Amino acid sequence: MTLLVPLTPAEFMDYKSTSIPMYAHEKVRSGEWAEADAMRLAREAFDLLLPNGLDTPGNHLFGLRETADGPLLGVLWFAIRQRAADRIAYVYEIVIQPQFQRQGHAKRAFRALEDKVREMGLSGIALHVFGHNTGARALYESLGYESTNITMFKPVG
């Protein structure tokens, strides 16, 4: 079982210090940002989405744990957003610590998230996944997620 436990301020700061460089790396890898600009743009994006950190309204950041006082397995961050006439949870990030990867924690975290979303009266869950992240795409598809928008690119010169 994987529990969603609210992040502490210290855990949030640790998460932020690793999440921003990871996001910058993924945006460079996807070809969307130049490496020279990536860290600045990632910091700006993070600060825009979470201007008040853990206290940003509508955002929920959870530590993933097997027990309430167990080790931090990873982090799941979602925000409440509008999708057409429905209120949904939009997952900004799930990250599992390297030593806990490939053990089913992400799948169990998404099952716990489904329960949380139902409790909150939201109608669904949406997320973004980078096209090159085939492992995450396979996980989401195995959980019943379907593509709703696809951006494609072909270099020609």
Lay out the secondary structure.
Elements: E1 3-6, H1 9-29, H2 35-49, E2 59-65, E3 74-83, E4 86-96, H3 105-119, E5 125-127, H4 134-142
Descriptive notes:
This protein is an alpha+beta fold. It has one domain: Aminopeptidase (3-Layer(aba) Sandwich), CATH 3.40.630.30. Helix content is 38%, strand content 22%. It is built from four helices and five strands. It has helices at 9-29, 35-49, 105-119, 134-142; strands at 3-6, 59-65, 74-83, 86-96, 125-127. α1 (9-29) crosses α2. It is globular, with a radius of gyration of 16 Å. The model has no long low-confidence stretch (mean pLDDT 96).
CATH architecture tag: 3-Layer(aba) Sandwich
Task: Count every helix, treating DSSP H or I runs of 4 or more residues as helices.
Answer: 4
State the CATH superfamily name. Answer: Gcn5-related N-acetyltransferase (GNAT)
CATH C-level class: Alpha Beta
Low-confidence segments, ≥5 residues, pLDDT <50? none
Count the domains: 1
**Helices and strands, in N-to-C order?**
EHHEEEHEH
Shape: globular
Structural class: alpha+beta
Query: What is the residue-averaged pLDDT?
Result: 96
Distance between the termini: 49 Å
- Tell me the strand order in the biggest sheet: 1-2-3-4-5
- Rg value: 16 Å
Give keywords.
alpha+beta; five-stranded mixed β-sheet; Aminopeptidase; 4 helices; about 160 residues
Short description, anyone?
The protein has 157 residues and is of the alpha+beta class. The protein has helices at 9-29, 35-49, 105-119, 134-142, and strands spanning 3-6, 59-65, 74-83, 86-96, 125-127. The chain has one domain: Aminopeptidase.
